[in-house]
Design a protein that fits this description.
Strand order of the largest sheet: 4-3-2-5-6
Number of helices: 3
Largest sheet: 5 strands, mixed
CATH topology of one domain: Nucleotidyltransferase, domain 5
Number of strands: 7
Distance between the termini: 83 Å
Structural class: alpha/beta
Radius of gyration: 30 Å
CATH architecture of one domain: 2-Layer Sandwich
Strand content: 15-25%
CATH class of one domain: Alpha Beta
Shape: rod-shaped
Order of helices and strands: HEEEEHEHEE
Oligomer: single chain
Amino acid sequence: MIIHRKKKAPYEVTMPLTSLIDIVFMLLIYFLLTTNFLVDEGINIKLPQAMASKPQVEEAITIFVDKDGRAYLNEQEITMGDLFKTVKDMIGADKDKLVVVRADRTVILNKAVKVMDVAKSAGAGRLCLATEKDL
């Protein structure tokens, strides 16, 4: 009687996936925690759109103009007379300080220009009208 031996299956090489999954999740958590989620809070305005806009990285004085033409500084409504005094105090001796006007896209142009004129007369060396990138 001939007896045939059963051939043993060769050993399969397996990679332990548990530690690999742990590392992937740790990397995911790291990137989620270190990502800078910018939330621009303040006055609810819709900025005008421009194709050639670039992000602003310089610290500046920001004046908001809402759709009704009211001016806001540091999220508080301010009159034009008080705006002049406050901006003049904030600029101080730094005549090259940037003043950014973030006007709503539906505001009448005259009201945004008045705010820019007040900032210029308060001593602002540089004025900028904020826009958002048009996709």
